[in-house]
Write a structure and sequence with these properties.
Shape: globular
Structural class: alpha/beta
Strand content: 15-25%
CATH architecture of the largest domain: Alpha-Beta Complex
CATH class of the largest domain: Alpha Beta
Number of strands: 11
Number of helices: 7
Order of helices and strands: EHEHEHEEHEEEEEEHHH
CATH superfamily of the largest domain: Spore Coat Polysaccharide Biosynthesis Protein SpsA, Chain A
């Protein structure tokens, strides 16, 4: 059996989910898991492309995907976010992979991202590969709240044919995710025994900015690169500030 299920989590993404699902309409199955907080009709859009649309309590993306994966019966799974879409070249590459019995067990796919409407060619985003295609029975996501990745039992390889990512279109979108991710990042770190030190609030944010803006040549993306690098540094600072606050609250208990 060499069929494929596309697994997509559906938040409020009514302006993007159609493009996402249209790009994988060729897949054998599409499985959409809707966040109960979704209120913009995204679930209704998903139902135009598949009958396999369910609503499930959202804790975090890793937990949601790990809940869904045991229900997938196809040999292969492609994980796609609602603000991502598959290029024609990637579709052909995926179809060739799943038709080949000698394929690896998982594949890191190159991703091209847009920020505030502009394609980002530097800042390190040009090196963005995500493990999204894998044999269903061999993949499971790490149990962490933010930036979880799937662990695959077996060999993995890279795919250079691209998927696209229409990330934050507005600052409001960015800061909604920023607040959630920095809080989750701090909680994950705290539970793993990490603690904030002076260097985490001073040098780490600076190094993050310099790495994105200078070493990864974010300056070549103009104001978008400058702003993205600054936000990256602010994200690091905020995560460690929230981790410090968790430490402070523990001491006061």
């Amino acid at each position: 059996m060499n069929d494929l299920t596309v697994l997509t989590l559906v938040p409020n993404a009514g302006d993007r989910i159609q493009r996402c699902l249209e790009s994988v309409a060729w897949a054998d199955h599409i499985f959409c898991v809707v966040d109960p907080g979704t209120s913009d009709g995204s679930g209704d859009v998903a139902r135009k492309y598949t009958n396999h649309v369910v609503t499930h309590e959202y804790i975090n993306a890793a937990a949601q995907r790990n809940w869904a994966l045991p229900q997938i019966t196809t040999e292969w799974t492609l994980v796609l976010d609602a603000d991502e879409w598959v290029s024609e070249a990637l579709r052909e590459r995926i179809q060739a992979i799943i038709a080949d019995s000698g394929s690896a067990d998982g594949y890191h796919i190159k991703r091209i991202s847009y920020f505030l409407g502009k394609r980002i060619r530097h800042c390190g985003w040009n090196r963005d590969y995500n493990l999204r295609l894998f044999r269903t029975q061999k993949g499971r996501y790490l149990d962490q709240r933010v930036h979880s990745r799937v662990l695959v039992e077996g060999a993995t390889a890279r795919i250079d044919e691209v998927m696209y990512h229409d990330t934050y279109r507005t600052f409001e979108e960015y800061f909604t995710t920023f607040q959630r991710f920095t809080t989750w990042g701090a909680q994950d770190a705290f539970e793993h025994g990490k603690r904030t030190h002076f260097v985490d609030l001073t040098l780490r944010p600076l190094v993050k900015f310099l790495k994105m803006y200078l070493l990864r040549q974010g300056f070549r993306d103009g104001y978008h690169g400058l702003i993205l690098s600054g936000l990256g540094a602010m994200s690091v600072f905020t995560k460690y500030a929230k981790l410090w606050n968790l430490q402070r609250m523990q001491r006061e208990d």
